[in-house]
Amino acid sequence: MSDLNTRQKETITPGALYIVSTPIGNLADITYRAVYILNEVDLIAAEDTRHTRILLDHYGISTAFKPYHEHNAYKMIPVLLDRLESGEAIALVSDAGTPTLSDPGYRLVHTAINKGIKIIPVPGASALLAALAASGLPTDRVCYEGFLPRKKGRKTRLEQLADEPRTFVIFESPHRIVKTLSNLSDAIGGERRAVVCREMTKKFEEFARGTLDELIDKFTVNNPKGEITLVVEGTGKRSRTRDKRNKYNV
Hints:
The structure is a single chain. By secondary structure, this protein is α/β, with parallel strands linked by helices. The protein has nine helices and ten strands. It folds into two domains: 4-125, Tetrapyrrole methylase, N-terminal domain (Cobalt-precorrin-4 Transmethylase, domain 1), CATH 3.40.1010; 128-242, Tetrapyrrole methylase, C-terminal domain (Methyltransferase, Cobalt-precorrin-4 Transmethylase, Domain 2, 2-Layer Sandwich), CATH 3.30.950.10. Helices cover 35% and strands 19% of the residues. The strands form two sheets. It has a five-stranded parallel β-sheet, sandwiched between helices. A five-stranded mixed β-sheet has the order 6-7-10-8-9. Helix 3 (73-85) packs across helix 4. It is elongated and about 55 Å long. The relative contact order is 0.14.
């Protein structure tokens, strides 16, 4: 396998936190640089050690790794900071894609920055960008919504999206997608175009396109499986109120 590192050596920075993007499905969707970094750092902080073990075994990477996730973040942050401040280089990975997007990685990054620790991103796969690129909806201005609140604040967030002029992206689980599509239909209108991006880069990859109401009908009959990224068109109209509040509304 050709190795980018043989052409351009990269020296690992002691005490640096590397934010490493990993595949969202297909294990081949990882950069040469990411494989090199994961091989050379002192420790990998992994959101899901089961997913990470599969990836590391596939590429023959023997670097030690520890779990860092939503349920142990506050306990692990001081541990990881101590190791960083002692000069160890650490790679942060999520279970798939780019860390810090809708996962606790941002807490570690934020705290590390406040401690003066160098942050080095290693870009790569992203469900957000893959879904937008394949959606066919406008991408000149986009809004990332992540996961909608399940209960408290959900109605308010949906009402706000009714006036959102930009294409927006939501992460959702397969067993909640019909409910979310129905909630969106009620809040912003069932005729709004959307794309349900399912199992991207995997064997059963699917891009279901249609109006919100058409997608409700489709997935009510055929229960979806796998990870879902939902892309919904905006109103297409610039919000005067929002533009007055922030002239650089992106």
